[in-house]
Amino acid sequence: MLRFIKGFCLFSAAALGAAAPPALAAGDLLVAPTRVILDGSRGTEVVLNNIGSESATYRISLEIKRMTAAGGLDEIDEANATPAERAALDMIAFSPRRVTLPPNQPQVIRVGVRLPEGLAPGEYRAHMLFRAVPDATPAVAADPARPAPTGVSIALTPIYGITIPIIVRVGDLGVTATIGDARVGVTKDGPAFEFDLARSGDRSVYGDIEVTRPGVAEPLLLARGIAVYPEVGERRVSLPVPPELAAQLKGPVHIRYSEDRDIGGGTIAEADRVVK
Amino acid sequence: MRTTGMKRALAGAAIAALAMNASAAHAATATATAKAKILAPLTIANSTDLDFATIVSGATASTVTVSTAGGVSCGSGLTCIGTTSAAGFNLGGTTGQAVTISVPSTVSLSSGANNMTAALTSSATSMTLAASGNSFSVGGTLSVGANQAAGNYSGTFNVTANYQ
User: Fold this and answer.
1) Which residues does chain A have within 8 Å of residue B22's beta carbon, measured at their own beta carbons?
2) Which residues of A touch B115 (CB under 8 A)?
3) HSE of B110 in the Cβ direction (CA atoms, 13 Å)?
4) pTM, to two decimals
5) Is pLDDT above 80 for B149?
6) Which domains does chain B have, with CATH numbers?
7) H/E element holding B156?
8) Which residues of B touch A47 (CB under 8 A)?
9) How many beta carbons lie within 10 A of that of residue B16, not counting itself?
10) The A190-201 sheet, strands edge to edge
């Protein structure tokens, strides 16, 4: 029975992978789920699938990232880790750390937690990075059209991957969130719907954002998976929008921040704002 | 973690069918629960490489820029040959999911003992995933030294899609 369930789960992930846009390169990957929360000593599994057209070797590692006030995630060198971040790296166990997969072959990565004695209550977090190891052969191919002996030829190989947060919660933790002023701003990526999201408490908050016009059922804007991590008390949420939507968003709106639908979709915070 | 009623019902039906075959001789009723976990996936795929093509260096230091759209602007004193392209990536996942993209600001390239650096720019630093067409690209500005030694320069740079 268990085997059946596991098989079905993998099948689902593989089917989802097949639905992704056509892959062109070796090293393309799928990771599911997008977020792991461990409370207590029970572990979980993350599925990694090779959605590329060739066999590829993937490496799985843990990284420290800190949220910035702008809502980005900065990578932090291990040498600069705080004791809590160091503890997160030490308590999260996973296997395997390196795997070679033929195309469309999923692999389960088992993730567990070993809580050290006397660990202070709180939220501990690391980000799991999945990425393909580049081929040992040089990426530059001998191209007769390029006069390499007289010129400079460049081969820049991207090593690309996905990170997902692995969150360990110890003790009884709580959090509240508050939605601040909203506006339509201009970023270097184009217009964006922006507002401040403040958090207080001893853990992170995570949920979906829904922006509606009063009296209109159809939401103007939906964004899933917006988090505020404990290292910031407030972050800016900046959601890129097309220019026509940016114009539409101006005026009175209702902003609702709700829990993931999987855990009930309850409201975390909501506010009426006039967007300038 | 993610369950949907439909998949659960399908798996339930499959197991119920098996159970009926196995216990057809027994008239007793039995209940069985079946579970299927549906996970939200996310994907990243690389479509094109960042290609500065071939450059013939000049007597003074200069730069070659490949925009995120893939176009080239060849600095004064340099000769640029061939077709350039920006590195292209496609993301996939749940519609509406917020994703941030990290790309290093600089990358170094080497050919034997010779080095060059390139500054990188991404067409997007954050995205809200749509049902399709979630692509972004990475371009760069290559600093070519005066009389930069000829050769095949190579380097790697990390691109990650981060989920919160």
Assistant:
1) none
2) none
3) 2
4) 0.79
5) yes
6) 1-39 (no CATH), 42-163 (2.60.40)
7) strand B151-163
8) 39, 41
9) 14
10) A175-187, A190-201, A234-240
Mean pLDDT is lowest, of A99-113, A177-191, A199-213, for: A177-191
H or E segment to which residue B135 belongs: strand B135-144
State yes or no: pLDDT of A6 exceeds 60.
no
**Residues contacting residue A79 through CB under 8 Å, at least 6 positions apart:** none
C-alpha gyration radius of chain B? 26
Instruction: Dump pLDDT digits (tens) for A127-150.
Output: 999 999 876 544 444 454 544 456
**With bands split at pLDDT 50, 70 and 90, how would you rate the model's confidence at B119?**
very high
d(CA A151, CA A149): 6
Cα B135 from Cα B123, distance rounded (Å): 9
For the cut 70, the answer to whether the pLDDT of residue A14 exceeds it is: no
Q: Which of residues 33-92 of B touch A (CB under 8 A)?
A: 34-47, 49-57, 79, 81-82, 87, 89-90, 92
CA distance to partner chain A, nearest, from residue B27 (Å): 22
The answer to whether B122 faces chain A, any CB pair under 8 Å, is no
Full DSSP string of chain A:
-HHHHHHHHHHHHHHHHHHSPPP-STT-EEEE-S-EEEESS--EEEEEEE-SSS-EEEEEEEEEEEE-TTS-EEEE-GGG--HHHHHHHHHEEEE-SEEEE-TT-EEEEEEEE-PPTTPPSEEEEEEEEEEEPPPSS-S----TTS-TTTSEEEEEEEEEEEEEEEEEEES---EEEEEEEEEEEEETTEEEEEEEEEEEESS-EEEEEEEE-TT--S-SEEEEEEEE-TT-SEEEEEEE--HHHHHHH-EEEEEEEE--GGGT--EEEEEEEEE-
Domains annotated for chain A, with CATH where assigned, are: 25-134+159-170 (2.60.40.10), 175-275 (2.60.40)
Whole-number pLDDT of residue B4: 43
Q: How far apart are CA B92 and CA A30, in angstroms?
A: 9
Among B35, B44, B142, select the one facing A162 at the smallest CB separation: B44
Q: Of the candidates A41, A44, A39, A14, which has an alpha carbon nearest to the alpha carbon of residue A29?
A: A14
**In sequence order, which ranges of B23-151 are alpha helices (DSSP H)?**
none
Choose the mutation target among A160, A209, A259, A262 for the interface with B, i.e. most B CBs under 10 Å. Answer: A160
Reported ipTM: the value is 0.79
Residues in chain A within 8 Å Cβ distance of B85: none
